[in-house]
Give the backbone structure.
Amino acid sequence: MRLPILFVALLSLGLAACSSSTAYQAADKRGGYGYTETALGKDRYRITFNGNSATDKETVNDYALLRAAELTLQEGYDWFHLVNRDSESKSRNSTSVSGGTGFGGGTSVYQRCGLISCDTVVYDSPTRYSGGVASTTTRTSYSAALEIKMGKGPMPDDAEAYNAQELASTLRRWMNTGNR
């Protein structure tokens, strides 16, 4: 009797991981969920934040800006200027069929979720369903990339220049109060 309870508990944890947004953290590898940074020069960096399908576009952009502000302060600078900003979205569709009767062959599409991410799998199936209900789910994940140039002293009077301390403080306050 304990085995089914353990299985249900593990399954619940796996499903919960698929539905929770990406935390503000360093990515465990390039292309993984979270932020990465690449030094492009003494005072230049590229910062990227990749979110999962439960992390909205605004949060991904805010997290990239927060990392830019934190990195600017960490490197001993006061402000940063956005040299380039880019964002990307990736959408995945998954279709599931329920009910009906089986016959023939065909292609099946389903989504497989682990503790960290979900994958869409397409394969040739020996059974095709008739009379069932098919539903398609689209999941979109976002990525933001910033190229910044850091500076000290007086900040340029430019809409693309940010006071690192002020921005980091504002974004952290929003994160802590849940005002997303």
Notes: The chain has two domains: 2-91+141-177, 93-138.
